[in-house]
Write a structure and sequence with these properties.
CATH class of the largest domain: Alpha Beta
Radius of gyration: 23 Å
Distance between the termini: 20 Å
Structural class: alpha/beta
CATH superfamily of the largest domain: P-loop containing nucleotide triphosphate hydrolases
Shape: globular
Number of strands: 25
């Protein structure tokens, strides 16, 4: 029998009306703004009214470094949420929205997979409720107002060579990475170099995902540094007087989106910042609201634990005043074999020694996460060709690290495949062993923060940075930005900056080639190695096979 695709499974889902899903959380119909029958936004008034309630328990799902073999982090997040409900707990899921760029490029969608999905899958992976379009519009409104200010006399004395605010588009388009604007004569303005990033890399996206409410949103938008004068003094968004109009465009986008899993359990899907150039987590407002509405909230962080979990714990938790009670670290036997040196085309053959070698990557992540004082459990996302010997080797290794690895079969069996994991997570939380602390204090100098992450998480020998970068960090400290956390942008495929260096490498260095101040979002970005903020499409993009069938249904999404 042919295995059904994710989209076929999602299409066969028996969805409940979104007002019924809201009622499970105690959200009255008048506090939901429906977008059709199966998705809705939660009103700001309702969210504000929940502030006095006690918080539920937060569970972070993260993973080993991603490989082409696949890990299934979102699938496990959804599966665990369903599993918790299946064992009688009131739980909900919080995940990010999908970007159109990866959907039509190489990665595919972001709604889970198999029988552990959030629906409506097609709409979530496409326009959804328009949040990303609103962010794109708000960002580009600011871009237009900067150039307009320069055109009409430039009273702020903006140095057009030092405009740092680029434009954005929610699509992979390498042709737009570096462009020249305002060509065609005096009526079109003053020509200058510019470029586009993908929308998920926008500081507006990061701001929306860290803001607590509309007032906080507008303040953060106003804090964005958009350009510099000739004397290198900063120009802020509020100087351009764009923050009010941008807030108007983002008013509805600030409200979390309520949807459901295949098993009709509630889920918030809201926001989606890049996990490299930004912090890679769903919105603070969605997570904090979920904690008021459910006893257990399962959320995920982007990429592997060295990037996503570190940023979730050191940026999002620090800024939002939240803390996880447990961390689930997702791994697959296939990925262990790939980390152990097996080529992708050979992954189907049993190779216990490669699993054992590849477990070094898993072990490094376990060690790193324990530094935060949060208990860790490993979820082995099961594939049909995994052998008993390979699974046993992985479980034995994890046990040697003072943790437990539980086989999960949620892709094939939904909540039935995650009940064991759900019960283990509940048992861990009930023990009350979590004693969360961030990796570094606010008061630590910025360069020391970068070195702390590089040495304690990446296990690098040193950070290499030109004196100009160190001077820039010092200048930001003197300007009052020294208490900000740092967000390191590097490859997701390795602990190092070399994407081909798998496993648990040591003896490497972290070269910082650029630092950026995201004053509105509230963090310093350190760019290490070759990181693209506007991806390109692969040789054969997914868009080539996405189409409508004869019944008007979407085919090709995955």
């Amino acid at each position: 029998m042919a295995v059904k695709t994710d989209i076929e499974i999602a299409r066969e889902a028996t969805k409940q009306p979104i007002l019924d899903i809201g009622s499970k959380l105690g959200i009255p119909p008048e506090s939901l703004v429906p977008y059709g029958h199966d998705k809705a936004k939660v009103s700001a008034e309702f969210i504000d009214a929940q502030k006095g309630k006690e918080d539920g328990k937060l569970i972070l799902v993260t993973a080993i470094n991603p490989t082409p073999a696949g890990e299934g982090k979102t699938t496990t997040t959804v599966g665990l949420g369903d599993g918790l409900n299946a064992i009688g707990k009131k739980a909900m899921v919080c995940i990010r929205e999908a970007s159109l760029g990866p959907c039509f490029g190489m990665k595919g969608g972001a709604a889970g997979g198999g029988y552990a999905q959030v629906v409506p899958m097609e709409e979530m992976n496409l326009h959804f409720t328009g949040d990303f379009h609103a962010i794109t519009s708000a960002h580009n409104l600011l871009s237009a107002m900067i150039d307009n200010h320069i055109y009409w006399g430039n009273s702020l004395e903006i140095d057009s060579r030092r405009v740092v605010w680029r434009r954005v588009l929610d699509m992979n388009d390498r042709a737009l990475r570096q462009i020249t604007t305002s060509l065609g004569g005096a009526t079109n303005g003053f020509p200058r170099e510019a470029g586009f990033d993908i929308t998920v890399a926008s500081e507006v996206m990061a701001i929306l995902c860290l803001a607590n409410d509309l007032d906080d949103l507008q303040k953060r938008l106003g804090d964005i540094i958009v350009a510099y004068r000739r004397d290198k003094s900063p120009i802020y968004c509020r100087d351009i007087k764009a923050d009010g109009a941008m807030t108007v465009l983002l008013k509805d986008a600030m409200q979390p989106n309520l949807v459901q899993t295949l098993e009709n359990n509630p889920a918030f899907v809201h926001g989606g910042p890049f996990a490299n150039i930004a912090h890679g987590c769903n919105s603070v407002i969605a997570t904090k609201t979920a904690l008021k509405l459910a006893d257990y909230v399962v959320t995920e962080a982007g990429f592997g634990a060295d990037l996503g979990a570190e940023k979730f714990l050191d940026i999002k938790c620090r800024k939002a005043g939240i803390a996880p009670s447990a961390v689930v670290l997702v791994a697959t036997i296939r990925a262990m074999k790939m980390n152990g040196g097996v080529a992708k085309e050979d992954l189907n053959a049993e190779n216990v020694s490669a699993v054992e070698e590849g477990c070094k990557n898993l072990g490094r992540h376990i060690e790193n996460l324990k530094q935060y004082g949060v208990p860790v459990v490993v979820a082995i996302n099961h594939f049909t060709l995994d052998t008993e010997a390979e699974i046993a080797a992985c479980q034995k290794f994890v046990e040697s690290q003072g943790a437990e690895a539980i086989v999960c079969k949620h892709w094939a069996h939904g909540s039935e495949g995650t009940k064991d994991l759900a019960q283990k997570v509940v048992d861990i939380i009930d023990k009350g062993e979590a004693n969360f602390s961030t990796l570094y204090p606010d008061s630590m100098p910025l360069m020391d923060k970068i070195e702390t992450i590089a040495k304690k998480i990446y296990r690098a020998d040193e950070v290499i940075a030109d004196q100009s970068i160190k001077d820039q960090l010092k200048a930001w400290e003197e300007a009052g930005y020294g208490d900000l956390p740092v967000c390191i942008a590097k490859t997701q495929y390795s602990f190092s900056t070399d994407p081909n260096l798998r496993g648990a490498p040591t003896g490497h260095n972290i070269p910082v080639r650029e630092v950026r101040l995201s004053a509105g979002a509230g963090f310093i970005v350190a760019i290490c190695g070759a990181i693209m903020t506007m991806p390109g499409l692969p040789r054969q993009p997914a868009a080539e096979v996405i189409m409508l069938n004869d019944d008007g249904e979407i085919e090709g999404l995955f």
